[in-house]
Design brief:
The protein is of the alpha+beta class. The chain contains nine helices and 30 strands. Strands 18, 19, 22, 23, 24, 25, 26, 27, 28, 29 and 30 form an eleven-stranded antiparallel β-sheet that branches. Strands 3, 5, 6, 8 and 9 form a five-stranded mixed β-sheet that branches. Strands 7-12-15-16 form a four-stranded antiparallel β-sheet. Helix 8 crosses helix 9. GO terms for molecular function: metalloendopeptidase activity. Pfam families: G5, LysM, Peptidase_M23.
């Protein structure tokens, strides 16, 4: 089908020349003054006859004369057969344009072998192909539109999956509205190439036609581009060249003044070459996820609660929100994310903590509370066993908790040979109290303790005959009877 136009042209040229020769022959016969009969006799007597020869031209240049124009077609077929096995499956044709002009002559002076030999060197084999032009680079050719579409698909599948691509194409072809995303669903929203990959049909030498895989490799590999490289610790010319797939000699050519003896400096800039892909694939995904809305931790101040004390008034609980994002990937690597839509499904419950602001009183009121949880006085202040008992003993309480009798500051805690574990509290009003024989201590020196604060646990440490609290009260440094101030 590719030669129909040329064959019609050649046929018209032959017909035109043949008619021309007929006219010229007719005029010549008239003016020669020779009758038809005598002319016929001459042809018959000397054995001469009219022959057709074929003048061959290409690109306006004369090639030679042939005795038979069919030899041109035979030569074309021979040339196509020579390469047919090498390019199996590719429709081949002769790309050289030939013009054949017939002529009627009496004497044949052709050299078919020579002319056919010259024609053989002029004939070029071509094939219809689809070219992909990228910028000013040489086009990349594939066999046909089927291969072109396969190439586009193969490039896309480097970033997306087969299923994603099939579903994406189905949504594009559908006339139905695209359904909203479901929770935790991700789908391909768009796919695009970094350059326009328009296909152009044309003829080309068959050896330039690439398979789909070859074309994809060329597009991925790209071309060498010159870039800057900053020297890092441990770099040498050889390692830099190797990392950029180039020789050390080429690296030095790109950087005049640099030699193998040059001492490289950190952050020094060198020219290197890197392969830049001819085309990159960018895919846009839309994804819908349910995400928590973190609760806040809020604080409320309460003047009725002592400073340093706090309690959780309301437990916190995360909320929930639906977030639709656009995720951009280039050649399979995520290069960006953006929020397209966001809806709150459940508001968070914020945690509320009450913090006391009331200043703890360190000065006593002068009114002393009972330092134990109930109990009775098992031994009063005064002489006992030949010595003075400086305080009172409290035994058999409801619980073993010991409380500070009035506001004050802890001035002494620790072990005493007689008192065992003891606590001394000054009330900053001339009074001090002492708590002895404790099994454990809950306060430390310097701590402010409001009246009623639990400061320890009743025990039987030190010189003790049983579990009880030994309690003393001092006024201006002297022991006084605790029962005189306890309420």
């Amino acid at each position: 089908m590719f030669f129909k136009g040329r064959e019609m042209k050649e046929h018209k040229e032959r017909s035109f020349l043949y008619k021309k020769i007929q006219k010229v022959g007719f005029i010549t016969i008239l003016f020669a003054g020779i009758g038809i009969s005598s002319g016929y006799a001459l042809e018959k007597n000397d054995g001469s006859s009219i022959h057709t020869v074929y003048h061959v031209y290409t690109d306006g240049q004369y090639v030679g004369m042939l005795s038979d124009d069919k030899k041109i077609e035979l030569l074309k077929e021979e040339e196509l057969q020579k390469v047919a096995s090498e390019f199996e499956g590719i429709p081949l044709e002769i790309g050289t344009e030939l013009s054949v002009v017939p002529e009627k002559v009496f004497t044949v002076g052709t050299d078919d072998e020579k002319v056919l030999g010259e024609l053989q060197g002029l004939l070029s084999v071509e094939a219809e192909a689809v070219g992909i032009q990228i910028g000013e680079d040489t086009p990349i050719y594939v066999r046909d539109m089927t291969d072109y579409e396969e190439l586009i698909k193969a490039l896309a599948l480097q970033t997306v999956t087969e299923q994603e691509l099939v579903e994406f194409e189905a949504r594009k072809q559908s006339t139905e509205p695209i359904p909203p995303l479901k929770e935790n669903e991700t789908r391909l929203a768009n796919i695009q190439f970094s350059v326009d990959l328009q296909a152009t049909e044309g003829r080309v030498a068959p050896e330039k036609i690439r398979s789909v895989q070859e074309a994809k490799t060329i597009l991925n590999k790209g071309t060498l581009e010159e870039k800057k490289y900053a020297i890092e610790p441990g770099d040498v010319l050889g390692s830099i060249a190797s990392a950029h797939n180039m020789s050390t000699a080429t690296l030095m050519e790109l950087n005049p003044g640099i030699s193998e003896d040059t001492v490289l400096q950190i952050d020094q800039q060198l020219n290197v070459t890197v392969l830049e892909p001819l085309v990159e694939v960018e895919a846009h995904y839309e994804t819908k996820e349910i995400e928590p809305i973190q609760f806040k931790k809020l604080t409320e101040k309460d003047e009725s609660v002592f400073k340093g004390e706090k309690r959780v008034k309301q437990e916190g609980a995360d909320g929930r929100k639906s977030v639709t994002r656009i995720v951009r990937k280039k050649n399979g690597t995520v290069i960006g994310k953006s929020v397209a839509e966001e809806h709150v499904l459940e508001e968070p419950v914020h945690e509320v903590t009450v913090v006391g602001t009331k200043v703890m009183p360190s000065r006593g009121t002068g009114n002393f509370m009972w330092p134990a949880d109930g109990g009775y006085v098992s031994s009063q202040m005064g002489k006992r066993w030949g010595r003075v008992h400086q305080g009172i003993d409290i035994a058999r309480p409801s619980s073993r908790s010991i409380f500070v009798a009035d506001n004050g500051v802890v001035t002494d805690v620790g072990w005493h040979s007689t008192y065992g574990n003891r606590i001394v509290v000054t009330h900053n009003n001339g009074y001090e109290t002492l708590y002895a024989h404790l099994s454990s201590i809950n306060v430390k020196v310097g701590q402010t303790v409001p009246q009623g604060t639990k400061i320890g646990v009743m025990g039987s440490t030190g010189r003790s005959t049983g579990m009880h609290l030994h309690f003393e009260v001092f006024k201006n440094g002297s022991n006084i009877n605790p029962l005189n101030v306890l309420r």
